[in-house]
Amino acid sequence: MSKLNVLLIGSGGREHSIAAFLARSPLLGTLTISPGNPGTVSLGENIQSPGNKPELWMPLIKQRSVDLIVIGPEQPLVDGWADYFREQGLAVFGPSKEAAKLEGSKSFSKEFMSRHGIPTAAYQVFGSHNSGSEGEAIDWIRQNGHFPIVLKADGLAAGKGVFICQTLDEAADTLHQYQQNQTLSKAARQIVIEEFMEGEELSVFVLSDGSSWQILQHAQDHKKIGEGDTGLNTGGMGAYAPVPSANQELLEIIENEIIRPTLDGMRAEGHPYSGVLYIGLMLTNQGPKVVEYNCRFGDPECQVILPTLENDLLELMWAVSQENLYQHTIQTSGKIYTCVVLASKGYPGPYETGFEITGLDLASNDEDTYIFHAGTKEQSGRVITNGGRVLNVISAGNTLQESISNTYKIVDQIHFENEYHRSDIGRKGIRSIKP
């Protein structure tokens, strides 16, 4: 097989980790990352983004003789970039616009699950911008809601569109916020109201080429900003993979009741799913139920999943794009990886940037330790903070506890002003391991 020239679209910690493992592949020709970040400079060539429409990328793709396009973030997938590139005869790792609706529209995904008998929370959909709809939603909650109750913006909201409300007043304030908040308003043209599900969360990642599929890995994310899973939702403050409590019996239930009907359902509706499908689950007393679908690698779950792979990542992505995933078997190392996100104090609200980061060379001599850039930039030869989630620190262990300990040893040696991180990443995983 000839070498493959790859274009990776994105700039965060997820894309840094993808770039790191693509760069290891003997199949790789050139790797172009657009726009990339200071951490991806050594892995390929960072190129400024040509623009926010896929057609603007075609000169770059032709100039670089790109063989495979890997789309990291969800927004371009939901906007249909994969369809456009495929129409130009290009190989793409990422689902079509219609398939990406599983993430792009919460109401679509809930109705899809209802059609195909996939277990999920009971729900109701309201059009938040319709006249009187806010009052209708409150009336429905007053008559039917059992607190706590979950409110979700229908569209993409960078992981910040979900609220768990404890009272009717809190639900009313949240519905009002959806309409008034400039960043949430577009995503909240419709609101999904769900019953609150109790249990442990589990994220399962599946590779699918449209006809065949395999479980890639499973992980547990930590969405809340505060210790003990308190405070506002974020894009993710840490993760670990694999999850020790996810045994074979549980995974078989998830395969039969959730993964297979999801992928069979998409194919039956004329939109076969190609790429990676992230299924966020709640392990309830009634069994696993779907919390959400994502149409791309999670962030920071990607950063702990990819190090566990013994396969060539580029080979797998190419197989997905060529619809021959069935020729490959996914193999993992057996090690457990933990990721701790170092954030700017104030995130997910307002925060300051521009602070110099020290300690970034700590992963250079350890093959089981990684530092992935998420919100950084280079200025006058220094790497400085440039976002809410700044860095991802990852390390391995033969047990979850060992992985957690090794990760925090690195975290303690990285410094920047106004740094914040959770100190309890993985702790609930330790509690869930049966003696």
Structure description:
This protein has about 425 residues and is α+β, with helices and mostly antiparallel strands. It is built from 14 helices and 22 strands. It has helices at about 15-20, 60-65, 75-80, 80-85, 100-105, 105-115, 135-145, 170-180, 180-185, 250-270, 300-305, 315-320, 400-410, 425-430; strands at about 5-10, 30-35, 45, 70, 90-95, 125, 150-155, 160-165, 190-195, 200-210, 215-220, 225, 230-235, 240, 275-285, 285-295, 335-345, 370-375, 375-380, 380-385, 390-395, 420.
Jot down its keywords.
435 residues, alpha+beta, 9-stranded antiparallel beta sheet, 5-stranded parallel beta sheet, 14 helices, 22 strands, 29% helix
The fraction of residues in strands falls at 25-35%
Number of helices: 14
Fraction in helix: 25-40%
Major sheet attributes: 9 strands, antiparallel
The coarse silhouette is: globular
User: What would the average pLDDT be, to the nearest integer?
Assistant: 94
Report low-confidence residues grouped into runs of 5 or more. Answer: none
Q: N- to C-terminal separation?
A: 48 Å
Radius of gyration: 21 Å
Which structural category fits the helices and strands? alpha+beta
- Strand tally, please? 22
Which helices and strands appear, and what pairs or packs with what?
Elements: E1 4-10, H1 13-22, E2 28-35, E3 45-46, H2 58-63, E4 68-71, H3 74-78, H4 81-87, E5 91-93, H5 101-104, H6 106-115, E6 123-126, H7 133-144, E7 149-153, E8 162-165, H8 168-180, H9 182-185, E9 191-195, E10 200-209, E11 213-221, E12 224-226, E13 230-233, E14 238-241, H10 248-268, E15 274-284, E16 287-294, H11 301-305, H12 313-321, E17 336-344, E18 369-373, E19 376-379, E20 382-385, E21 389-397, H13 400-411, E22 419-420, H14 427-432
Parallel strand pairs: 1-2, 1-4, 2-3, 4-5
Antiparallel strand pairs: 6-9, 7-8, 7-9, 10-11, 10-15, 11-14, 12-13, 14-17, 15-16, 17-21, 17-22, 18-21, 19-20
Helix pairs in contact: 7-8
